[in-house]
Design a protein that fits this description.
This protein is an alpha+beta fold. The protein has 13 helices and 17 strands. It has 3 domains: 67 residues, Alpha-Beta Plaits (2-Layer Sandwich); 277 residues, Bira Bifunctional Protein, Domain 2 (BirA Bifunctional Protein, domain 2, 2-Layer Sandwich), CATH 3.30.930.10; 32 residues, no CATH class. Strands 4-14-15-16-17-13-12-7 form an 8-stranded mixed beta sheet. Strands 1-3-2 form a 3-stranded antiparallel beta sheet. Strands 5-6 form a two-stranded antiparallel sheet. The protein binds zinc ion.
Length: 404
Amino acid sequence: MNKMMTGTVDVTVDMPKKVAPEVAADIVKESVFVSPHLERISVADDCATAVLHIRDAEFTDEVVDKAARYLAVMAKQRTGFDIKCYSENIRRDDGPFQAGVNEEFIKRGWVYDYGKGQIAYNGPVLKVARLVNEIAGKLYEENFDAVDGQFPGFIDADILHKCGYFDSHPNQATFVGNVLEDFDALEEFRVANSCAEGAILPPSEHIHHDGMCLNPAACFPAYPTLEGKTIGQDGFALSWLGRVFRYESRNASGLDRLYEFNVREIVFVGTDAFVARKRQQAIPLVTGLAETFDLDMKIETATDPFFATVSASKKFFQAAQEVKNEILIPVLDKAGNKKPMACGSVNMHGRFFGEKFNITAADGEPASTGCIGLGIERWVLAAFTQHGFDPMRWPEAVRDRVFG
Ligand SMILES: [Zn+2]
């Protein structure tokens, strides 16, 4: 390779084996995490070859090597799970799905996009977001006596480690950095910025990490608060609106893939039987929420894999004895075709968190836990996609609250 070669270059490589289309889609999506010198990997329609879009030709050898290892791991993903549908709602609105919803939000001034996966919103977008949160919160309170709470947006790395997060999603973690407690480093940082046009960040050796992260899954902060406790009766439920952060790199876009978003969460803690029973009772409530907003929705077995390294994800699955169901609401992809969007999940963790955090159920065994998270902004996007911007197409139950 000519060391002086610069600029972008495309390299076609053979896939280690022919993969299923859903695996190919994952390969494309996660490829932003392969190398800083790789723009993206695209997979050919026949799923037999892939093209590496390399940003900097100088690093071609390095990127080709890394991509080969990435593809080898990704191609091993198991597919063909038996997909079971647990519940379904079919909308009454027979109008077409609305295309370009994210763009229309911005045009109407209802959403401001900061450009890195963070948004500000107001008007009907805010009203739908609040309604989804409010209705779900009320259902949880009425049906499960869920105790309302609030948790911080920061979380200690030790808690994330205990929750198995670094094993399953190392690419999505965010670490909080502070300027070193050092007079010279602080002064250097102050002076550099006092006369600068744009922000000048401290050099990396002047930033230290004391182990704080931004919380990447709504329910994690709940478990340490229960540490060492014995749960009375059969169990109980906790519910809250959580702020969640998942680093998406260049995949961040619109309300469907935010770095920072809101989740209405409910966590069940108690005996195995209690948690299993609550999950059964919760599924029709989520379906009822879709009915209130008149949305096509299905709750199905989830098949989405964790990041790249399959062994780690398997380990996590086994440890957590996980059963994950996804709440899928169809929206439109960029080409205008309907595609299911995961607007939340119903998760059974078994005794994973009970054991990790020493939480005991009423029967003396480690407590079981389960949770349901609803991605608020995705519900908003789904509702506007399925009903558009004409209030008359929205269900009467929510119309005035959204457009009034
Ligand atoms: Zn959860």
